[in-house]
Specification:
Length: 97
């Protein structure tokens, strides 16, 4: 499965055909929440489901999201907590893997 071509503006720094919606689901969710419109969000909910999206968001550091987008997704999904870490800490952790 591939992302619809309408997602291209959300992944301007990626080669869209190489993005795997399952393998890269964290990046897909973050970019869609931060930069997507309502149609993108609908695809996200239809493809992954509310429970899966909520679980993934709770594991992603809040610094990955734009503040306004994070507030909106908190309201829509009734998320009460999110992982807090600086972006630098996340990058260092990924490099050490």
């Amino acid at each position: 499965m591939r992302l619809p071509s309408s997602f291209k503006p959300l992944f301007w720094s990626y080669h869209l055909p190489l993005i795997d919606p399952e393998k890269d689901k964290e990046r897909v969710i973050v970019n869609t929440i931060n930069y997507g419109n309502w149609e993108h969000w609908q695809w996200l909910f239809k493809h992954y489901g509310v429970k899966k999206i909520k679980k993934i968001i709770e594991e992603i550091p809040a610094s990955e999201f734009r503040k306004r987008a994070l507030k909106l997704i908190f309201l829509l999904l009734k998320i009460k907590k999110v992982k807090y870490a600086t972006r630098g800490a996340k990058i260092r952790a990924e490099k050490s893997i």
